[in-house]
Amino acid sequence: MTVDSGLIRLEAHLAKRPRRDSEVRLRQDPYASLAAVAQQGDREALGQLLRVVAPRLRAAARALFGGDHPDVDDLVQDSLIAFVHALPAFAGRSSVIHYAYRITVRVCLAGKRRSRERGSRYEPVADVEVFGGESPGDELANERREAVRDLLEGLPENQAETMALRVCLGMSLNEVASATDTPVNTVRSRLRLAREAMRRAIEADARLSDLMEGWL
To answer: What average pLDDT does this structure show over 103-130?
Structure first.
């Protein structure tokens, strides 16, 4: 089965049914049809989809973990593998890219915890443009990025995930809600709790207090 023929059959099938909200969102996502064909077992479609998401997941991994760490390539590969395994469960409630971002956040947060446990040391990323829109060449911004990564480790998993998607990857509240299949009010609550916990950690550390002044 070719990708084109799969897309034609998918479009014809969808056209025969009443459109639910989730289907409308799926059709608006430029990669949703490709994902749907890949879900049917089409390896060519899956390969095309991976070529689309791979560079975006690499940028996300560099933002979340640090750009120069030797584990970044492994984290990207782990994220792609996790994405393939999770693809059958994709139901179009978020965009394909945001679905992949959530998986990458989980993989990178777990990887960072393992790296910390091993005592691995690395330099902050210096060339990623996401993360609050600060200049990637700004030394203070780089130090703040690294501090935020460290602070995320101290949060409960759902708060760390929400904070990473919102702050590190710059997703909107609605995008985070869709990606995590969570009500917007729950996203707001998790962000509030995360900021409060991070603020307490910052206030308890004089160096962090100076570094992060005005950030939260």
So the answer is: 61
| Mean pLDDT over each residue of the chain, to the nearest integer | 79
CA angle 189, 160, 32 (to 5 degrees): 90
State the angle between helix axes of 21-28 and 32-39 in degrees (0 to 180), rounded to the nearest 10.
Answer: 110
- pTM, rounded to two decimals: 0.72
- Residue whose structure tokens are 């603020």: 199
CA dist., res. 47 & res. 99, Å (int): 17
| CA pair distance 89, 60, nearest whole angstrom | 22
Q: Do 213 and 206 form a contact (C-beta atoms < 8 A)?
A: no
| Cβ-based neighbours of 154, under 8 Å, separated by 6 or more | 197, 198, 201
pLDDT tens by residue, 4-58 = 444 444 444 444 544 444 444 445 899 999 999 999 999 999 999 999 999 999 9
Give the angle 22-55-32 at the CA atoms, nearest 5°. Answer: 20
- The DSSP call for residue 87 is G
Separation of alpha carbons 192 and 12, rounded Å:
44
Question: Alpha-carbon distance 76 to 71, whole Å?
Answer: 9
The pLDDT, as a whole number, for residue 80 is 96
Q: State the DSSP H helix or E strand holding residue 100, giving kind and residue range, or none if neither.
A: helix 96-118
Query: Which pLDDT does position 118 carry in this prediction?
Result: 59
